[in-house]
Amino acid sequence: MVVKVGILGAGYIGGVHARTLRRDDRVNLVGIADIRREAAERLAAEVGTRALPDLAAVLHEGALAVYVTTPNAHHVEPVVAALEAGVHVFSEKPMATTLDGARRVAAAAARSKALYQLGFNRRWAPAYAFVHDLIARGELRPAMAHVKMNRGELQNPPWVSTTSLTGGFLYESTIHLLDMCRYLLGEIAAVTCQARTTAYQEPDGFAAVLRCAGGALVTFHSCAHATWAFPFERIEIFGPHQAVVTEEMDRVTVSPGLGREVTTRAYAQLPMEEKWGYRAEDAKFVDAILEGRRPGVTAEDGLRATELVEACYRSVRTAAEVALPLA
Ligand SMILES: NC(=O)c1ccc[n+]([C@@H]2O[C@H](COP(=O)([O-])OP(=O)(O)OC[C@H]3O[C@@H](n4cnc5c(N)ncnc54)[C@H](O)[C@@H]3O)[C@@H](O)[C@H]2O)c1
Q1: Of all atoms in ligand 1, which is nearest to the CA of residue 172?
Q2: 0.85 exceeded by the pTM?
Q3: Helices (H), 23-166
Q4: Where are the membrane-spanning stretches (predicted)?
Q5: What CATH code is carried by the domain that includes residue 24?
């Protein structure tokens, strides 16, 4: 069976998915839509499909699945409409830019027979998948972690400095590693967070402590104006005389115990689509459709990540610890 797929949003990440999906024999790209006709036409020509005006036209082409790759604040409406039409959805992160929006998507996903998968691509990145396996096999027993997710600027693409479109900086790159904390360390029980406003019109630097339900403590840092000097993304996890350190998605260093050999795995030379997990997340989405399986990143994951972002903002506003799940 061939899965007919349409894309809404012909920008940077729409292009990444379109080029990946084009190489999958199980996929027929039926069209690409964008509010900017010329963007849709450019990407459609590149990947050999039709430019379309909007989601309705994508559905009219008989799409069985749609990728929603529009700016953050424009995810909920098309996602809910597609799910209500019984069309499978791959939504770029974030799920929504408000808790209400995320709850609407989660409710629509629960009601629909169609699947919903969220674009937390890092879960499929070989570097993070390796750390996840170490923990799952009991070879790393996390007690403490230090997590950093910086961004160089809020300038590119231009809408990322507009809070009403992003939902706030934490919904941008930061949400990826908030999700990664949950993925690697389990549910987060409480968040304490402070913030500063330095380079933009909204809080753009955050220092948080996440208390995991399993007991681990995480110090979490995220800054929007760090420049792109490496490393901007790093996770350090410490167990009893154990340490694991990731640098971007390029390297993982493992120190398994005192007096034992320290090893480093390097993924730097992988193609970007593989190293960042994009190829795997797209393949898994198509697998899930064809095999009727639960997608790898679910609406529940999206809702919990939204709660983590909102808990950080609430803690900044109230100067108090915020317990999760949110009431
Ligand atoms: N998972 C990742 O690694 C990753 C990376 C980049 C972006 N993203 C996410 O993907 C989304 C898109 O980001 P981008 O960097 O591709 O942005 P972009 O600006 O490059 O592309 C967005 C496209 O959507 C179009 N658009 C805007 N509003 C629309 C609407 N209402 N209907 C149809 N088209 C519309 C724009 O014209 C533009 O072509 C964002 O939510 C972003 O957070 C995820």
Answers
A1: 43
A2: yes
A3: 37-47, 55-60, 76-84, 99-111, 126-136, 163-166
A4: none
A5: 3.40.50.720
| CA 298 / ligand 1 centre spacing (Å) | 20
Question: pLDDT tens across 107-116, in order?
Answer: 999 999 999 9
The pocket around ligand 1, CB under 6 angstroms, is made up of 8-14, 34-36, 39, 69-72, 74, 92-93, 119, 121, 157, 159
Into how many domains does the chain fold? 2
- Looking at the fold, whether 114 and 226 belong to one and the same domain comes out as no
Cis peptide before 53 (omega within 30 of 0): no
Can you give the residue range of the structural domain that contains 176? Answer: 122-269+306-323
Ligand 1 centre distance from Cα of residue 157 (Å): 9
**Residues 259, 204 share a domain:** yes
Query: What is the edge-to-edge ordering of all strands in the sheet holding 3-8?
Result: 51-52, 27-33, 3-8, 65-68, 88-91, 116-118
Biggest CA-to-CA distance, the chain: 63
Provide the pLDDT confidence category of residue 1 given band limits of 50, 70 and 90: confident
Nearest CA to ligand 1 atom 7: 13
> How far apart are the CA of 245 and the centre of ligand 1, in A?
31
